[in-house]
Amino acid sequence: MLNQYVVFQLEDELYGVNILQVRGIEKMLPLTRVPNAPPFVKGVCNLRGSVIPVIDLKKKLGLPQKEDPNAKIIVVNVGKHTVGMTIDEAADVVTLDASEVEPSPSLVAGIDAEYISGVAKVYNRLLIILDMERILTADQINLLNELR
Amino acid sequence: MESMDLKTYLPVFIEESKDNIQQMSENLLRLEEDYGDAEVIDEIFRAIHTIKGMSATMGYTQLSNLAHQAENLLDEVRHGRIAVSPAMINGFFKVIDEIEEQLSVLGQTGEPKALDNRRLEEIKAHFAEARRADAGAAGKYRVEIVFSKDCLLRPARALVVLNQLAGVGNILHSDPPQDKLPSLDNLDKLVCHIAAASPQQVHDVLAGGVEIDSYTLEELREEAGQTSAAKPAEPQVNRNISTVRVDTEKLDHLLNLVSELVINKTSLQEAVASFPSLADDVEHLHRLTSELQNIVMNMRMIPLETVFNRFPRMIRDTAKALNKSVHFEIVGADTELDRTIIEDIADPLLHLLRNAVDHGIEPVAIRTSLGKPAAGKIVLRAYQTGNQVVIEVEDDGAGLDLDKIKAKAREMGLWQGQEPDDAEAANFIFAPGFTTSDRVTDLSGRGVGLDVVKKSIEALGGNIEVISNKNAGSTFRISLPLTLAIIQGLSVKCGDEIYVIPLSYIQETEIIYPDSIQMLGQQQIYMLRGQVLPVVFLADLLGFRDYVPPQEMSLVVVHFGERLIGIIVDDLLSQQDIVIKNVSWGQGYFSSFLGSTILGNGRIVLILDINNLLAGVKVREVKHA
Questions:
Q1: Catalytic: B49?
Q2: Catalytic annotation on B170?
Q3: Is the pLDDT of residue A44 over 80?
């Protein structure tokens, strides 16, 4: 089975997101910051009339921070939700057979394995495929538990 | 038709059946007021017949059979073979309960469930009893009774006779009225209208009556408007308006698009200054979008009827369970409210109405000893004033025991020093955990208090107050915004950011200077017309770092529960209609905000959730010096 992935760069690593979850890639939009929200919520932006939250993906994944002037926003759809995430540079779309994707080792590039759905090799480099659903829901579930 | 195809009709079947049983329920209540109303019987017949036909088409045989049995019984009534009886009405209500349950299961699982056997037995028993009712045709009769000359307490005697008559039929009307009788000194004759299964039963009562000199009995021909009793909400007169059912999600989407258009139009209006030749076109666009917006907002509005309709039955059952007599009246059921609000208003209203029956209306014995009509009266009233809809639950019962409330409130530390006035004291009942009741009845007092009612109303952007007079009754008044999609807001500046405060929270605003803020213990305060007002900086509430307040600031005095609190901002910007936009994900992270809105320039501004923001801080109770 073939799957397509949008490949982008965060710092020095390549990351992929299933293309079915990607609504588009936008240049940086003006953000309104959200007080009292966790640090990885960068703010909200106006995406053609919808208010969508923008998540600082590096912060969310616990990666070191460098401000990139070419930062872009990848807009993903997970279930009914639309969320923007900051990325450094969008590179490409790759097609991978399911057999090329391997289950992730427990820790890749310092990222918690629960956010990773697998790894593959493209351009002789490691591609880390992110599980967007987990990235969005894990935290919401924690939050709900805290509220209780 | 293939059974596969039928699945697509399931939502329509459920919706229409719900409408039908709702109508049936209303009509049954009407029938209970007047056993002889042939038109109402026909309406019920039509509704149950439709349910029977539709469920048979859908292949729900059990449901169809149940409806069939009910239809048969009613048919016998229509042919005058049996009379309407309490057993019949109770049986029909059980049938409605069963159908409702079936529909809800169908809605959830798409499959019918087996009928509830216990309820079926009850229905059978009720129906069997109904069939035993006198076969004489039910009719309305006018009875005129003259009491014998030597009868001493004629008004009292008349009451006794009325009670006996009530045993064989339904008293529709009496002259003098039943509740006036105890206060009369004398009485010549008593005239009453009764709906009874047969004239013979009435004859039996009157012929054996003590101290009755003579009486006449004649059958009343159909006359409209005979009953003075309260009726459930009138159905719309004009039933043949053609309508289309639309998925509510589509409506929401439409509203979103229109809000978009409004925002776009606003930015066009701002830009047009540089293109004077376009001014007319933009003005035209402005008119069109405003009209479009009005229409879309209107489409989201539905009449309160849809919620109110379920209450007459509930009041009837509650009153019966408590052995109380209650006349329930609905006024203004056609008042419209935003769909999203309507959905959330039912539970609070249910709570208030139950309370009114349980705690408000006194037992009959107490009422008569106070010279009140034996039957209590509860009015559910809705009306629109300006941008708000008011819903009142009014009873003519005991009213609140203010002395007890004041004592309890003091115990709970809700007031100290100067005694609160009555209006203020009455509203203590909304405080969390407040109860003066030592008993727990089956219906209320189970811990879900008025504070929950208040919270849910406030969550809808509304508020609630109570007005109470001892022995004259209480009125709970709920004010709600017409719609949740658009609110009135005041935009304020704080640091480099702009926020909106919903106008409904705001009491007043004032310009203040840093040196007029004083410290009282740990609490910042401001003296507002000689009163101590606790104040907080919005920047502190929002966790701004490195915030430097300007030399001239603005104070926004907001309601926080029962108290007033001042929120200090840099500046007030403007007051405007705000289209609320929900954030597409992660509401949990936005607990300080009700939502957001997009300004004409495309900039997103967050709307402050005053209750949540202030709940997070410890604003110390400031004691009056």
A1: yes
A2: no
A3: yes
Retrieve residue B49's tokens.
Answer: 């017949």
Token pair recorded at residue B275: 């293109």
- In this structure, the answer to whether residues B212 and B313 fall within a common structural domain is no
Helices B61-78 and B86-109, interaxial angle, to 10°?
160
Residue recorded with tokens 């949008």:
A6
The verdict on a CB contact (< 8 Å) between B604 and A37 is no
B133-142, B447-456, B593-602: least confident range: B133-142
- The CA distance from B378 to B535, in Å, is 42
Mean model confidence pLDDT for chain B: 81
* Domain of residue B283, residue span: 249-296
3-state secondary structure B80-105: CCCCCCHHHHHHHHHHHHHHHHHHHH
| Residue B211 identity (one-letter amino acid) | E
Q: How far apart are CA A97 and CA A3, in angstroms?
A: 6
| Topology (CATH) of A2-147 | OB fold (Dihydrolipoamide Acetyltransferase, E2P) (2.40.50)
B29: pLDDT strictly greater than 90: no
- What would the pLDDT profile of B171-227 be if each residue is shown by its tens digit? 777 888 777 777 777 777 888 888 776 677 778 778 777 777 788 888 776 443 333
- Listed in sequence order, the residues at least 6 apart from B293 whose beta carbon sits closer than 8 Å to its beta carbon are B258, B259, B261, B262
Which of B497, B585, B590 is facing A37, going by the closest CB pair? Answer: B590
Tell me which of B498, B583, B596, B601 to substitute to probe the interface with A (most A C-beta atoms closer than 10 Å).
Answer: B583
What are the tens digits of pLDDT across the range B395-445? Answer: 998 888 888 888 888 888 777 777 788 877 888 888 877 766 544 444 444
pLDDT digits (tens, 9 = 90+) for B127-152: 888 887 654 445 677 888 888 777 77
Give the mean pLDDT of chain A.
82
Contact between B272 and B278 (Cβ < 8 Å): yes
